[in-house]
Amino acid sequence: MPIAAASNTADAEFALARKLWEQSDVVRCETILRDLLAREPGHENATWLLAKLLQTQGQLDAASAMVFEWCRMHDFDPQHSLRGAEFIQQCHRQGLADKLCEDTLARHPQALSQLYYYCCLTARTRQHRS
């Protein structure tokens, strides 16, 4: 299948999944997203919608792991990793969020300023819990 046709198919599948999500048909939405990601593992919108779906279903470990792996797939790009760390922290998986930041900084030391805000929030959150 030509790349343009595959992309159009993926876009159409994602649009259907998003519509099903908006209609609260999470079972069909999840099935479509998993099938789409099996063929196109790097599909950003499908990854994030499935992660959100899993999060709302209480599958916080699975949602966090999916986001972490997506960031790894994108070589821990600082922008992606910041978004990922914030999501993972919302899932209350602080250790994994910290690992994401550490792995990102190991590959992209210049990203320190981008991740600084996140790190400050994390430190404040930990102080309030102590």
Proportion of residues in β-strands: under 5%
**Rg (CA only):** 16 Å
What do the pLDDT scores average to?
Answer: 85
Shape annotation: globular
Low-confidence stretches: none
> How helix-rich are the residues, as a percent range?
over 70%
- The figure for the number of domains is 2
Largest sheet: none
Instruction: Note the gap between the termini.
Output: 56 Å
Tally of DSSP β-strands: 0
H/E series: HHHHHHH
Number of helices: 7
Which structural class fits the helix and strand makeup? mainly alpha
Report on the architecture of this protein.
The protein is mainly α. The protein folds into two domains: 57 residues; 65 residues, no CATH class. Helices cover 82% and strands 0% of the residues. It has seven helices and no strands. Helix 2 runs antiparallel to helix 3, helix 4 runs antiparallel to helix 5 and helix 5 packs antiparallel against helix 6. The model has no long low-confidence stretch (mean pLDDT 85).
Helices and strands, with pairings:
Layout: H1 3-22, H2 26-39, H3 44-56, H4 60-73, H5 78-90, H6 94-107, H7 112-129
Describe this structure in a few short sentences.
With 130 residues, the chain is mostly helical.
Task: Note the main attributes of this structure.
130 residues; globular; single chain; mainly alpha
